[in-house]
Design a protein that fits this description.
Layout (H helix, E strand, L loop, with lengths): L1 H26 L2 H23 L12 H23 L5 H9 L5 H25 L19 H8 L1
Helix pairs in contact: 2-3, 2-5, 4-5
Length: 159
C-alpha cells in the first residue's frame, strides 16, 4: 500500500513537470504568438468597424439598426474567415472562456487570448475615438441603460 501511494505521488509530480514543460514549449512556439497577435488584431478591427457603424453625422439622429447589424455581422464573418484557422477567431473573452471550459484550448492560451482581446478592444475604441471628429463623438456604440430600467434589472439582462 505504501509503495502504491509513493508511486501515485511520483506520477502526480511527473505529470505536473510535464505540464510545466508543455507550457514552456507552448509559450516559445511561434504559432502561439501568431495566434495571440491575431486575436488582438481581429478584436481591434471588430470594435473599430462595429462601433464605427453607430456614428451618425446628423445630430440627435439614432443610428440605422440595419447598418449596425450588417457591419457587426459581416465584419465578424470576414474576420473569422481570415484568421479562424490560426487562432480560432474567438474575438471575445466569453468565447475564449467557453473554449477553456470545454477544454478546447489550454489555460495559458486562454489567459493570453483574453488579455490580447481586452487590449485589442481598447485599442480599437481608442483609434475610433481619435479618428472621429469631436463634434460627432456621441456614445460611439457604447451601450447604456435606459432611464426606466433599474441597475439590478440591467445586470440580470446582461448576465
Amino acid at each position: 500500500m505504501f509503495i502504491y501511494i509513493l508511486v501515485g505521488k511520483q506520477n502526480a509530480s511527473n505529470m505536473a513537470q510535464e505540464k510545466l514543460q508543455s507550457m514552456r514549449e507552448e509559450i516559445r512556439n511561434y504559432q502561439f504568438w501568431k495566434a495571440v497577435r491575431c486575436e488582438f488584431l481581429i478584436t481591434l478591427l471588430y470594435v473599430f468597424i462595429g462601433c464605427g457603424s453607430t456614428i451618425t453625422w446628423e445630430r440627435h439622429k439614432p443610428p440605422d439598426d440595419l447598418k449596425v447589424a450588417l457591419a457587426f455581422g459581416l465584419s465578424s464573418a470576414t474576420l473569422v474567415q481570415c484568421v479562424g484557422h490560426i487562432s480560432g477567431a474567438h474575438m471575445n473573452p466569453s468565447v475564449t472562456m467557453a473554449m477553456l471550459v470545454t477544454r478546447n484550448i489550454t489555460v495559458l492560451r486562454a489567459i493570453f487570448y483574453m488579455f490580447a482581446q481586452c487590449v485589442g478592444g481598447i485599442a480599437g475604441a481608442g483609434i475610433l475615438y481619435g479618428m472621429t471628429p469631436s463634434v460627432i463623438h456621441g456614445p460611439l456604440g457604447v451601450t447604456s441603460v435606459h432611464a426606466d430600467v433599474a441597475i439590478g434589472q440591467a445586470f440580470g439582462v446582461e448576465f
